Amino acid sequence: MARDLAFVLLVLAALAAFSSATKLTIHNLCPHPVWPLVTPNAGLPSISENTARLDTNAILSLTFPPTFWAGRVAARTGCNDGTSPPRGCFTGDAPPSTVAQITVHDSGNLDLAAYSVSLVDGFNVPMVLSPQAIGGGQCPALGCVVDLNCDCSPDNRAAEGTACRGPAGYFKNRCPLTRTTPTDVEPVPQSCRAPGELKIVLCQSSTGAELA
Q1: pLDDT attached to residue 210
Q2: How far apart are CA 147 and CA 141, in angstroms?
Q3: Scanning 48, 83, 91, 112, which has its CA 20 to 30 A from the CA of 135?
């Protein structure tokens, strides 16, 4: 009897831990499909097969491992649906590309998350990253709601105008809550503890919303 009760409690604890695991949510509001590309840093586990196609207003939910994880998220566009994983993507497989940089479960019991939206490698789609269900600290929404392809100079346009190489000053002026050089940081403090979810919204500007 006691052994059965212990087993039930163990199962319930495991289910509770799974239900409270930190999630990565990607919400596509772009007027075209995207294929998220989630790449772990060297030596860390993959959390996505990178085969999902997100049509307009579609959502992809992934689960981070319960221990330290770090990696990058990009949004591929114009991919060939006939292959798995998608191939022949117009943007997102390589620069220029908007990239979210994410670290979770850092600093032991502090369970810190660190995140940014980087335009160091260029720009292809507007991207905003915001923590949800936070455990404490300062967790600002970061990123860019502006379509920087529209005013990109002809010399910096790529992929037939669907991506932009820069320059960094142009990016920073239009999107100050992004990182535009290897040494750049956002002008807002960040110390985010134990978020239950990290949410990436693509093309948030298409809803008329503004990034605070």
Answers
A1: 54
A2: 17
A3: 48
Three-class secondary structure assignment of the chain: CHHHHHHHHHHHHHHHHHHCCCEEEEEECCCCCEEEEEEECCCCCCCCCCCCCECCCCEEEEECCCCCEEEEEEEEECCECCCCCCECCCECCCCCCCEEEEEEEECHHHCEEEEEEECCCCECCCEEEEEECCCEEECCCEEECCCCCCCCCHHHEEHHHCEECCCHHHHHHHCCCCECCCCCCCCCCCEEECCCEEEEEECHHHHCCCCC
Average pLDDT, the chain: 89
What's the pLDDT band for 208 if we cut at 50, 70, 90?
very low
